[in-house]
Structures are given as C-alpha cells and as structure tokens.
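Exercise 7b. Backbone tokens:
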C-alpha cells in the first residue's frame, strides 16, 4: 500500500470470475421465471441452480435497502440488523460457541485472525498514547475482545454496548471479574448524551456493515461532538454483489453499495474526514474466510479537535 489514505479492493489478484458468472445466471433465472420452473423440476443435484432465483431476489432486496436508507435503521425490528433482542442475542451465542470450538485458531472463518489483529493494533494504540481513558465498543456482541483488552490495559475503562439486554446479561455473567469492564444495553445516542468521552476511543467491528449511510453520519457526528480522540474500525469488505467491481476507499464522496445480502460497503475514509477525523492508518486484513474476496478493512483516525 503506497497511499495509506486510499485503497481499492478487490484487486486483480482475486478470482472473481466465478462470482460474476453466478450473478449472471441469477439474473437470468429471476427475469425468466419459466427457466426457474424447469430447474425446480429437475433432481436435487440441481438444487444450487434452482435456488438462483431466490438468491437474486435477496440481492435486489439488499440493493433496494441501501438505496432506501431508512432513518430508524438502529432500531430493533427495522429492516437492518436484527428483528428483536433475542435475534441479536443468538448472534452473541454464535460467537461464544465459535470461540470455544476445538481448533478455533485454524477454523475456516475470519474471527480468529480478526480478534488477534484487534488486540494487536489497539494495544499498540494504547501504548502509544497514555492519555486514553476510555474505550467504547458499539455493537459489542460477545465481549471476548473487550475482556482481553481490559485485562491487558487495567488503567483504561472499557464499555461495550448492544441493544439486547440478553447480550448484556450474558456478558456480565462471563466477564464479571474485571472492574474496568462493563456492558450496557439500550440506545446508543441516549447513552452518550450526558457522558464525557474526551480522551476516548470509539470502536466498531462487523457493525457498520449493517447500517445505511445516514445513520453512520449521525453516529460519527455524535462521536465528534462528544470529543472522542480516536475512531477505529474493523469492517468486512469484498466484491460488491451490486456492482461486481472493485470499491475505492479514499477521501472522496461515493455511494455505499451492497456487499452481500444485508451487508454494505461504505467509503469509511470519507466519513471519517467529513466528521473532523484525520486518517492515520488504512489497511486490509486477510483472514481465513472461505470467500477469496473477503477482507477486513482496518482504519484508525484521530479527532482534529481533541
């Protein structure tokens, strides 16, 4: 990477032809229903083919969702994220079970390398700036990372927020031993309203991908106003199922696009710099995810007014 404020992904080294061919046939099956009906009458050996129409519908629904950009997207029951508290809590359980599976370190997923990267990069940040007092995680889910960091950096207060009270109760039951780590549930904007977050780090991982542009602007507006010193993010990116083209991450305004189903790709450097943060680091992290185009985009930015 020669310019840390600009990245283009996927690059030409990623085998994306197979994906493009699949989307091509999805469109055919969606637009020509009689072909879909023929495929469904064939044996189970053609199950993938017969599913193409439904897959294409989900793709189009996802594109419509990012274009609609509904304002209540952070509310449980909206078209974004999870339907209710239990639905969100089930994801927490999924990550808990994944971490405790034998062979987790070598599993075909993004989680292990992602967690290692988060601990490594944030520990470097904490060590380089002794003024950091708080760490706030929006969309904490299972608090494994927060626990590892809080144990390693006892002088910093760690707060993990999720909408589901079941997630909060579960995390409190598993991570009650550390006095500098707490979990809360409820509305993000309401929680931040009357609290001081100067000299703090605002963090998201696998969270902003579920949200449309308007709410990310509102989140970062609030983070800037509350005088957070840093924003850091670890968000999934890859080949857009909307454009089937590489996405450019830089300081210029550009439309967010569909990644896969209800995942979205946003131009994070633009969001950060628009809200008064100077981008210090921008990097793609390769994990063990089975899809060859999947990467984690890491960004670290500092508040110019802090």
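Sequence design result:
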């Amino acid at each position: 990477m020669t310019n840390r404020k600009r990245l283009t992904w996927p690059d030409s080294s990623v085998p994306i032809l197979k994906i493009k061919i699949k989307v091509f046939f999805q469109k055919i099956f969606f637009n020509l229903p009689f072909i879909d009906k023929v495929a469904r009458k064939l044996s189970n050996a053609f199950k993938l083919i017969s599913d193409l129409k439904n897959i294409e519908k989900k793709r189009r629904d996802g594109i419509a969702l990012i274009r609609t950009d509904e304002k209540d997207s952070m509310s449980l029951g909206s078209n974004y994220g999870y339907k209710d508290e239990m639905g969100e809590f089930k994801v927490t359980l999924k990550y808990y079970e994944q971490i405790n599976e034998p062979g987790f370190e070598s599993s075909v997923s993004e989680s292990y390398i992602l967690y290692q990267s988060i601990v490594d990069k944030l520990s470097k940040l904490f060590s380089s700036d002794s003024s950091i007092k708080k760490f706030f995680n929006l969309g904490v889910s299972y608090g494994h990372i927060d626990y590892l960091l809080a144990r390693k950096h006892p002088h910093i207060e760690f707060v993990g927020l999720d909408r589901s009270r079941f997630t909060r109760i579960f995390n409190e039951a598993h991570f009650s031993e550390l006095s500098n780590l707490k979990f809360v549930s409820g509305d993000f904007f309401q929680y931040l309203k009357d609290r001081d977050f100067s000299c703090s780090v605002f963090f998201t991982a696998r969270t902003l991908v579920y949200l449309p542009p308007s709410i990310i602007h509102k989140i970062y507006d609030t983070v800037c106003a509350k005088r957070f010193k840093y924003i850091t993010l670890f968000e999934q990116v890859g080949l857009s199922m909307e454009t089937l083209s590489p996405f450019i991450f830089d300081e210029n305004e550009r439309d967010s696009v569909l990644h896969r189903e209800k995942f979205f790709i946003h131009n994070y450097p633009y969001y950060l710099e628009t809200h008064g943060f100077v981008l210090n680091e921008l990097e793609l992290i390769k994990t063990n995810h089975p899809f060859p185009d999947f990467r984690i985009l890491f960004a670290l930015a500092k508040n110019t007014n802090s």
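Instructor comment: The longest strand covers residues 277-285. The mean pLDDT is 92.
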